[in-house]
Specification:
Blueprint: H1 33-36, E1 67-83, E2 91-92, E3 99-109, E4 114-121, E5 126-129, E6 142-157, E7 162-180, H2 185-188, E8 195-217, E9 220-227, E10 230-240, E11 255-265, E12 268-276, E13 281-290, E14 297-301, E15 309-314, E16 320-330, E17 335-344, E18 359-369, E19 374-385, E20 389-393, E21 399-419
Antiparallel strand pairs: 1-2, 1-3, 1-21, 3-4, 4-6, 5-6, 6-7, 7-8, 8-9, 8-10, 9-12, 10-11, 11-14, 12-13, 13-16, 14-15, 16-17, 17-18, 18-19, 19-21, 20-21
Length: about 425
């Protein structure tokens, strides 16, 4: 067996990489209901409520009163995977579970030049689960990653046209992995659902963000935002039930050790424009770049593992872009309507644990201003993923072909805003 890549532990290297948030790789974009309703087109430039803080801290200088916002997005993905070269064919339905994604924001203007704020949201996340009796249980089981970004920011208006902002990010991450014997169970005389590998851990790490807002006038502006890479250094419990990494481990006597694993959350940059051409119509757009090429490998180490290496998997990811365009219609002082479209490029080669694909986002939404202080946003989005085929090498050394038979999702979001 090649100890650089222990075949039975390959799924463990995907502990953080499965995905049910329906953006490239394992990225989360569901930061607000207003943004979702326009497919996140123009987010670094619009600054229509406090949720803009997630996309550009410099936008805080456009607020003259304190504002808070809270949003909740519900995501219902429909992801089905089926085999192409097995007899009989196998199909795994609804591998990405229903998800609820909260976010909250606070912006406080200090004077005409300075403002500060606090954002709580997530930029990356994971949740997939295959049946415990799945034949390829050693390649795909249950995978969960929760990240929370606690992000204080400060903004400065340099002059009437230019503002800058910056912040720090304290990122909390919690992860859980379970893989099962699956098709290996016949060789061991045990249940296919018995755990083969388990790994859990959590960590706190730091990052930073910065943004620029350039206002040509009240109706035309551009925004540029950058959010830094964050390296998650996990130290958690690793359990081997076959002996591929920890000597003496078996299905009867699983062995445990503390393993260290670093996972890269890639840097993100976004450029946006906003143009209000009439009293009723505005156009907005964004180009978002994610530095997935920095996500090169997953390496877990422990002195209890052979050669101190529990697992290693090289990743095949490239930088990706998301292109968005949307329009806003100011129907009345109380009602604002919006719609948008995005094309989100695939970041990496698809696998059972990362059924990644290029995706098309179609969105619409509205804002209702109840009073001068209270307003409410709603948004709905349909996401259609390209059907993709991919190949995985199982522990028996044979290559198996899979296809994402379905890769769609519906997302709905609601948000409340209060201006003091």
């Amino acid at each position: 067996m090649d100890r650089k890549i222990a075949p039975t532990l390959l799924p463990a290297t995907c502990i953080f990489l499965s995905f049910n948030t329906f953006a490239a790789g394992f990225q989360v974009n569901e930061h607000s209901a207003s943004g979702l309703g326009r497919a996140f087109a123009g987010e670094a430039a619009i600054a229509d409520n406090a949720a803009s803080l997630a996309h550009n801290p410099a936008s805080m200088t456009r607020f003259d009163r304190m504002q808070i916002a809270g949003a909740l997005t519900l995501l219902n993905p429909e992801v089905d995977i089926e085999t192409l070269n097995t007899e009989p064919p196998q199909r795994y339905n609804d591998i990405a579970p229903f998800a609820a994604i909260p976010a909250s924001y606070f912006i406080q203007p200090v004077n005409d030049q300075w403002a500060w704020g606090l954002a709580l949201f997530s930029s990356y996340g994971v949740a997939t689960e295959y049946p415990t009796e799945a034949h390829f249980g050693s390649l795909a089981g249950k995978t969960d990653l929760l990240t929370i970004n606690i992000n204080p920011n400060l903004a400065w208006r340099i002059n009437e046209h230019l503002s800058v902002g910056a912040g720090v990010s304290l990122v909390y991450a919690d992860a859980e992995l379970k893989r099962h014997f699956g098709g290996l169970s016949t060789a061991y005389g045990i249940s296919p659902s018995q755990d083969l590998v388990k790994m859990t851990g959590d960590t706190w790490e730091w990052g930073w963000n910065a943004g620029i807002l350039w206002e040509l006038n009240a109706n035309h502006r551009f925004g540029l935002n950058y959010r830094s890479q964050v390296d998650l250094d996990f130290s958690g419990e690793f359990v081997d039930s076959q002996g591929a990494s920890i000597p003496g481990a078996s299905s009867d006597t699983p062995q445990k050790t503390t393993s260290d694993l670093t996972v890269v959350l890639p840097a993100i940059a976004e450029f946006s424009g906003y143009h209000q051409f009439t009293s009723q119509w505005a156009l907005h757009y964004s180009i978002q770049w994610t530095q997935w090429s920095e996500f090169k490998e997953l390496r877990a180490t422990s002195k209890e593992c052979r050669n101190s290496l529990c697992l290693l998997k090289e990743e095949d990811f490239d930088d990706s872009f998301r292109y968005s365009i949307g329009a806003t219609y100011f129907l009345s002082p109380q009602w604002t309507l919006r719609a948008g479209y995005s094309y989100d490029e695939q970041a990496g080669a698809a696998t059972l644990s990362i059924p990644d694909a290029s995706r098309y986002w179609y969105a619409t939404g509205a804002t209702y201003r109840y009073t001068s202080q209270w307003s409410f946003d709603v948004g709905i989005m349909y996401i259609r993923g390209k059907r993709d085929t991919f190949t995985e090498t199982y522990v028996d050394g044979q290559e198996y072909q899979f296809r994402s038979a379905k890769s769609d999702a519906w997302a709905g979001s609601a948000q409340v805003n209060y201006t003091f």
